[in-house]
Amino acid sequence: MSGWNRLFVVVAICWMLVAPFLLMADTNRPIEQVKDLCTDTAYNRYGSSSSVQLDMAKYDAEVKKCIDAYIRDFVSPPKLLSAMAGQGERELGLVAWGFILIPLALLWIIAWALGRIVFWVAAGFRR
Known about the structure:
There is one protein chain. With 127 residues, the protein is an all-alpha fold. The protein has one domain (3-126). It contains four helices and no strands. It is elongated, with a radius of gyration of 24 Å.
């Protein structure tokens, strides 16, 4: 195996270890924003002293709804790994595998093509 192939193997292994965490962070960002918006809205409506209707019971109920929705939609490491193994949400698993494999395939193809072009140009100067 050449040095370039070994370098690709190392990059591929590092990417396969890091990519699921990047995907989780990207997937969970909108969910966290919605939860924050939901709890802020509940606070402004029912929990703050300047709200029109100060009702801590309603505030607690709204916050509980927000947190329940957050827990339901949050993508955790076990949820992502089970989806990748085919035991969870199929769409999430396919997105995760695509997120891992497509960049590696593109890197391999682009590096191969670039290497061929460089060797072709260099061969033209050797004559």
